[in-house]
Every structure is written in structure tokens, then in C-alpha cells.
Amino acid sequence: MRIALFITCFNDTLYPATGRAVVTLLERLGCTVEFPMEQTCCGQMHFNTGYQRECVPLVRRFTEVFAGYDAVVTPSGSCAGMVREYHGRVAEVSGDARLASAVQALPEVYELSEFLVDVLQVTDVGAYFPHRVTYHPTCHSLRMLGVGDKPLTLLRAVRGIDLVELPAAEQCCGFGGTFAVKNSDTSVAMCADKVRHVLDTGAEVLSAGDNSCLMHIGGTLSRLRTGVRTVHLAEILASTEEKPATDGPQPSPLPRRTTEGVRSR
Predict the structure, then answer these.
(1) Which residues in the chain land under pLDDT 70?
(2) Residue 249: what pLDDT?
(3) Contact of 201 with 119, CB cutoff 8 Å
(4) Of the candidates 209, 84, 73, 188, the residue with the CA atom closest to the CA atom of residue 138
(5) Nearest C-alpha neighbor of 39 from the set 79, 99, 77
(6) CATH number of 132-238
């Protein structure tokens, strides 16, 4: 199967280890992975902020870059949701019939966990990650893509892991892209609730399928000097005894704090 990796702007700029982990994981499972160098933004930030017509060139470029592959895989539920749910609407707004046809002809775009479980039909990827982990299901993957418990199914099969349930897991962390900028007080309060629940689990690691949410939650975890680190799902699944996950944000060397000082709404 010839797969294109859609890395997304966020990962390309801030979390390149996640993209490397996706390639390592998929190649270990026998896939041929290519990284189209011409890829750019999917237009999610523009679309969510009301600039739909400004998305048109980005959607057109996406259809050109990713045409011809068997599948497109991305370590981001939010960007996968943008492509699957809204690129067609952008093409409609453009009034360009050829663009609408190109969007329809694109290969399916999958978030990583649904590609592993639904397409490859694999739940045990041979990973090893001996840490206490809790998982945050991001809003787009949960509500827009409907990935359900696929990430948890994959994590439960990881050898050595101590996977603990996150209380109120389905509550939003408060990031929401530009929402966190425009509604900062609300965003901070929502993140405080999420951090309190993370600390209640006693986990060493918080994982998710979107680094945007992990950045938001991880910023608060770091400022509070909790010692809890954030690791993308792909990096846990790519980790083995021979090649353990070592990239990504590291925990603070300072002593952990409890939920004291974490403001609730």
C-alpha cells in the first residue's frame, strides 16, 4: 500500500518527532510511506476563523499534492477532519467544478489510529512503553471523525504500559486553535479542569492524537512543574524495547505538585 504522510503545519514546525514516529511505525507494519515535499497547510485555521475563500488555494494545492496515493495518513484528528468534512464545502464556495471533482477524487484521509485499526486491521503494533499513561481524546477525533476507542485499543496492547482512565475525558481541553487566543480566559479555565483530571490519575505521561491539544495542556503542566510530560500517540506506538521513545518534551526535573493551585472553573 502506497501511503502519503500528511504531517500538518503544527507537527512540521513544532513536533517533527511525531512525523518520524508515524513513518517508523507504518514501515514496521509493512507500508510504503512517502512524504510529498510540496504539501502545505490544509486551511483549517483560515476556515475556522471565517476566511473560507482564502482556503481555496490551499485546498487546490492539497488535491494536487496528494492525488494518486492509496491513502493519506495524518497524526492529527483536527486536520483529518478539516480535509474530510470541509474541503468539499470550500470547493463549493469557490464555484470551481474542477476543484470539487478533484476533492471527490482524493484518496481517503485517515487519522493514524483509524488507519491502523480499520484499514490495516492491527491493534497490537509491537510497541513497548513502560510508563503510567493517561489518554485525552481530542474533540475533532472524538466528535467529528468518530474514532471512538481505537486509540485506547492500541494503547492497551502496548507492552509494559500502565494505562489509566482520564476522568471527564470527553471534556474539551480549551485549545480550539484561535479560540484559545480570542477567548483566553475561558480557554485557561477549561485547561485548568483538564490538568486537574490529569494529575488525579497519577500518570507520568499524557498522550493524545493531536499535538495542538498536547501543547495547550502541556504548557500548563510545565508551568505548574508537575513533572508530567506529553507524548503523541504515534510516538508511544513507535516505541520498542530496542528503540524506545526518547524524543519530544521531557518532564520537569523539579518535584511533582498535586492539584493544589490548579484553578477550576
Answers:
(1) 246-265
(2) 42
(3) no
(4) 209
(5) 79
(6) 3.40.50
